[in-house]
């Protein structure tokens, strides 16, 4: 089925800002380890969401500031599911995880280390547990799938993996500007201790940074996602790892976590900070001294609070205020609420999507038996991933309707035949991001809007002309049962700082697609495709690769043919 590309226009980008994303929290088997806890992320909250674009930098391993460990290490069981959550606003999980304008693959890597806190991350030892790129059948990138899954990227650890400390590294790569060789990497490292008596080790590892991982100019980071060739896209990095038994396990087995445990004396945990109860007191001097200790601890809490915020620090400050209030009231017996735990209860989530490893994850069966008695017998280490399906090449064939720009008059018939949509109002709404409300703790990353080459933004002729009615179009024009003012298609956007678009469209055919105007610069060819006609004979546009967000466009369909209105909003 061909999908006429109608109604497109492209235009200049508005100066804009854009929020990117931060790997903010690790869930182990669905249980939160606490926002920011055990995670190496860029320290400056204002810059934590910035992408990495220098592939030779050590920052590629665990992000800026990532060569230094944080205080805590999350315990993980053999075969656990790790879930990494990305957030555009790390201190506000109710907001979006990643702007829809980011398209690209994802992956999870692990590195076995002697110390999860001391290892600098950068260097050899990394192996890939899973990756995911583009799905031609659904026209979705991994980023789309993750955004649909609340920004959560999950991976099951292969059962029987050698126990000990690891750095676990989620990765998302945004390709919207990769035409220029500037793919944006978003990463971070979770420090974990794997409680396992298994002995599986990866057969091979790569260095991050390094050319076996990724280097500038490689097709995985220099790729145009706007020309209909996404099915050919190869994800960055090595293949998904395969595993073998470590015959030397006895000599380096780490069976007990000794570092990075949250002390039981911690009554308040904020990311990697821990607040301890102040000394009990029974006189005025003691009261003020404990108050001061409280504030001293709290100051550190605020100073160390990562992008995920200081909500626990605030609870701590309230505690300190309460102590001081007692001193002022000459109630010198305290502290009040002694020992009360201020750490929020750990949230448990429904993990949702788990992307299985493809093209790897095999466990070599005939390898030497582990020497250590501590090592798990093979039977306890089932080859979890041996059945990973090979990709059928056919699944990756580009769909003709994604690559072509059919001319409307000759192709309408094909979609008219397959009405599959029941919306009676508007069909598709693209919204520009409204980032006017970014919190001060995490200001949006983008400051400069690329200049647009006017030629790149010429509206396509089929977008601006009023096509004559062909005989095939007549079939749906015969049954218009809607008002001529119902918008057929609208692009809304450019309203950075202005969340309410000025169109009347309400209902969408598919989840809205957002493309920040700033990033539209990278999009040479706006394409969208009408795929079906609803029962009212309206063209339903459900697929887009690139969307113009700085224009509002209405199209009205009348018995007389197409008409459209375009409103530019800069
Ligand atoms: C796209 O990449 C070029 C460098 O290749 C850079 O100058 C430009 O700022 C990037 N644009 C965006 C929107 O990231
Ligand atoms: C794992 O094995 C598969 C074959 O089953 C292979 O294609 C892949 O390259 C291997 N992974 C690595 C990292 O060598």
Describe this structure as you would to a colleague:
With 570 residues, the protein is an alpha+beta fold. It has 3 domains: 16-252, Coagulation Factor XIII, Chain A, domain 1, CATH 2.70.50; 266-328, no CATH class; 375-569, no CATH class. It is 14% helix and 22% strand. The chain has 9 helices and 24 strands. Helix 4 packs antiparallel against helix 5 (311-328). The radius of gyration is 27 Å and the shape is globular. Mean pLDDT is 72; it is low at 1-17 and 367-570.
Brief overview, please?
The protein is of the alpha+beta class and 570 residues long. The protein contains 9 helices and 24 strands.
Q: Which features characterize this protein?
A:
9 helices; alpha+beta; disordered N terminus; Coagulation Factor XIII, Chain A, domain 1; 8-stranded mixed beta sheet; 4-stranded antiparallel beta sheet; 570 residues; binds 2-acetamido-2-deoxy-beta-D-glucopyranose
Task: Please mark out the parts with pLDDT under 50 across 5 or more consecutive residues, or reply none.
Answer: 1-17, 367-570
Q: What is the name of the CATH class of the largest domain?
A: Mainly Beta
Small molecules bound: 2-acetamido-2-deoxy-beta-D-glucopyranose
Task: Give the total of beta strands.
Answer: 24
How large is the count of helical segments? 9
CATH architecture of the largest domain: Distorted Sandwich
Question: If you average the pLDDT, what whole number results?
Answer: 72
Q: What shape does the CA trace take?
A: globular
């Amino acid at each position: 089925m061909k999908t006429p590309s109608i109604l497109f226009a492209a235009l200049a980008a508005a100066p804009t800002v854009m929020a990117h994303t931060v790997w903010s929290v690790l869930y182990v088997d669905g249980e939160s380890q606490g926002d920011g806890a055990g995670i190496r992320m860029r320290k400056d909250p204002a810059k934590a969401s910035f992408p990495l674009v220098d592939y030779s930098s050590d920052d590629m391993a665990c992000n800026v500031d990532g060569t230094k460990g944080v205080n805590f290490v999350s315990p993980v069981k053999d075969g656990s599911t790790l879930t990494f959550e990305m957030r555009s606003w790390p201190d506000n999980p109710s907001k979006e995880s990643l702007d829809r304008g980011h398209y690209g693959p994802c992956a999870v890597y692990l590195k076995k280390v002697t110390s999860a806190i001391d290892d600098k991350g950068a260097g050899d030892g990394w192996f890939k547990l899973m990756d995911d790129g583009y799905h031609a059948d659904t026209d979705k990138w991994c980023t789309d799938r993750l955004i649909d899954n609340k920004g959560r990227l999950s991976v099951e650890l292969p059962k029987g993996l050698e126990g000990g400390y690891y750095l676990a590294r989620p990765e998302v790569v945004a390709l919207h500007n990769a035409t220029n060789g500037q793919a944006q990497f978003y990463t971070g490292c979770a420090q974990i201790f794997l409680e396992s008596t298994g002995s599986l080790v990866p057969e091979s590892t790569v260095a991050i940074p390094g050319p076996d991982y990724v280097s500038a100019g490689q097709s995985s980071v220099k790729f145009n996602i706007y020309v209909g060739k996404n099915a050919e896209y190869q994800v960055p990095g090595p293949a998904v790892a395969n595993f073998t038994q470590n015959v030397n396990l006895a000599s380096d087995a780490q069976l007990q976590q000794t570092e990075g445990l949250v002390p039981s004396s911690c009554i308040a945990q904020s990311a990697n900070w821990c607040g301890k109860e102040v000394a009990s007191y029974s006189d005025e001097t003691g009261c003020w001294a404990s108050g001061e200790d409280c504030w001293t601890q709290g100051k550190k809490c605020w100073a160390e609070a990562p992008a995920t915020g200081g909500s626990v620090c605030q609870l701590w400050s309230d505690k300190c205020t309460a102590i001081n209030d007692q001193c002022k009231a000459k109630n010198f017996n305290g502290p009040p609420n002694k020992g009360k735990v201020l750490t929020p209860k750990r949230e448990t989530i429904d993990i949702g999507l788990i992307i299985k490893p493809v093209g790897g994850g095999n466990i070599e069966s005939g390898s030497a038996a582990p020497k250590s008695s501590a090592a798990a017998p093979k039977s306890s280490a089932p080859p979890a991933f041996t059945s990973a399906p090979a990709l059928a090449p056919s699944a990756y064939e580009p769909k003709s309707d994604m690559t072509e720009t059919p001319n409307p008059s000759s192709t309408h018939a094909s979609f008219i035949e397959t009405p599959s949509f029941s919306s009676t109002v508007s069909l598709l709404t693209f919204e520009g991001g409204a980032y006017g409300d970014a919190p001060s703790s995490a200001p949006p990353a983008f400051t400069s809007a690329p200049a647009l080459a006017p030629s790149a933004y010429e509206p396509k002729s089929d977008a601006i002309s009023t096509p004559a009615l062909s005989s095939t179009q007549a079939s749906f024009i015969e049954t218009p049962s809607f008002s001529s003012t119902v918008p057929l298609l609208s692009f809304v956007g450019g309203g950075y700082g202005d969340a309410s678009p000025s169109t009347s469209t309400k209902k969408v055919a598919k989840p809205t697609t957002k493309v920040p105007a700033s990033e539209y610069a990278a999009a040479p060819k706006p394409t969208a495709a009408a795929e079906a006609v609803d029962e009212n004979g309206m063209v339903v546009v459900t697929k887009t690769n690139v969307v113009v967000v700085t224009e509002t466009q209405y199209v009205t369909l009348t018995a007389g043919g197409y008409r459209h209105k375009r409103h530019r909003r800069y």
